[in-house]
Amino acid sequence: MKLDTISFFNLASDRMQWLAARQKVLAENIANADTPNYRARDVTDFQSFLEKSDAARATGGLSHETTVETVNASGAWDSSLDGNDVALEQQSVIASENADQYRLAANLYRKAYQLINAASGKE
């Protein structure tokens, strides 16, 4: 059984892909917290990513080829005199929330897989 043909698994997989890309951007923000004139970035919202992923599937493309676009982050908590607007506390909070959401999506994916296996008589 191909799990990626079931829409729930597509959604969970897309969500994990988007969250992983966002975690990478947040890590880059933290790594550049002392870089002059560095502007914090974030990714476009999940809805936009999902629409592109669905469009890729509709045209026969692979969803994992859908890229997450980055944008300048809005609502920075702080800005320094050198033009850097990365607030480590803010980025840490967002990264922690992002990691929690990733764990949730991964757990849902795993539980759905286990449910399908149980329903089909497999362990």
Q: What's the number of helices?
A: 3
**Rg calculated over all Cα atoms:** 18 Å
Q: Count the strands?
A: 2
> What is the quaternary state of this protein?
single chain
In percent, how helical is the residue content?
55-70%
List keywords for this structure.
123 residues; two-stranded antiparallel sheet; elongated; mainly alpha; 3 helices
Produce the secondary structure layout.
Blueprint: H1 7-31, E1 41-43, H2 46-58, E2 70-72, H3 88-119
Helix pairs in contact: 1-2, 1-3
Description of the molecule:
- With 123 residues, the protein is mainly α.
- It is 57% helix and 5% strand.
- The chain contains 3 helices and 2 strands.
- Strands 1-2 form a two-stranded antiparallel sheet.
- It is elongated, with a radius of gyration of 18 Å.
- The two termini are 15 Å apart.
- The model has no long low-confidence stretch (mean pLDDT 88).
In short:
The chain is mainly α. 57% of the residues lie in helices and 5% in strands.
